[in-house]
Amino acid sequence: MSNDALQFKEVSFAYNAEDANSQRMLDSVNLNVTRGEFISIIGASGSGKTTIFKLITGLEQPTAGKILLDGSERKDRLGHVGYMPQQDLLMPWRTIIENAALPLEIQGVRRSEAHKRVKILLQEFGLQGVEKKYPGDLSGGMKQRVSFLRTILSGANVLLLDEPFSALDAITKLTMQEWLLVQWQKRENTILFITHDVDEALFLSDRIFVLTDTPIRELKEIVVPLSRPRTIRDMNSTEVVSLKEQLLRKLRHKVML
């Protein structure tokens, strides 16, 4: 089996490609993500971050090139990646356990068996004792725990997280970042994480892809110089502070153009 969880091979994409005035977003882009990596994608609004996620999930198809998962080209990628959006999208009329069990039910697992599988993970995800509550009873951080549990239960190796903590307050956000790293290291999933937050990208990631040009012709890659496990104190190292300044300059330049 390929060690590459995800590959783009000369991928191009344009919205309304048949239109002469179509908006090109990607132009012969290559991308390799190794199994078990944590990759962040940062860029200004409209730079193509969400488009990349749509292509990975199969919600959009390339106008040219190939997208491979685990070394194989797939057209039906939606069922082979997990997706966690910015909003938790929990169903307000379903209890927490019912919300978490949804991907299992979609896969055809009987409801009683699906709930049994969810119960095993409740304590690990900090949700013990709230399984019979409804989303409206939970804090933002707790809702995101449910959303991530639901993403994990999709069974996919590649997980796409689209600014999942952007609506949280600073303390809750940091707590969730630390919690996410623990869950990721325990399960060894491959994560692609969209964020506008440079500190968040540096703290979480092995590599960061910076989007500065549209259409995207290459993903500018930055390797984060931090070993694992890491703590928030590591963010104060001279090397990381310097790297943060470089990233901010790149992003500011794009916004000012």
Number of strands: 10
Q: Give the termini separation.
A: 44 Å
Strand order of the largest sheet: 6-7-8-3-9-10
Q: What structural class do you assign from the helix and strand content?
A: alpha/beta
Order of helices and strands: EEEHEEEHHHHEHEHEEH
Look at the structure and give the mean pLDDT.
90
| Rough outline | globular
Low-pLDDT residue spans = none
Structural description of this entry:
The chain is of the alpha/beta class. The protein has helices spanning 49-57, 96-100, 102-106, 111-122, 140-152, 170-187, 198-204, 238-256, and strands at 4-15, 23-34, 38-43, 64-69, 72-73, 81-84, 158-162, 190-194, 207-211, 220-223. It has a six-stranded mixed beta sheet with strand order 6-7-8-3-9-10, with helices on both faces. The longest helix is centred in the C-terminal third of the chain and has 19 residues, at 238-256. The termini are far apart.
SSE inventory with pairings:
Elements: E1 4-15, E2 23-34, E3 38-43, H1 49-57, E4 64-69, E5 72-73, E6 81-84, H2 96-100, H3 102-106, H4 111-122, H5 140-152, E7 158-162, H6 170-187, E8 190-194, H7 198-204, E9 207-211, E10 220-223, H8 238-256
Parallel strand pairs: 3-8, 3-9, 6-7, 7-8
Antiparallel strand pairs: 1-2, 1-4, 4-5, 9-10
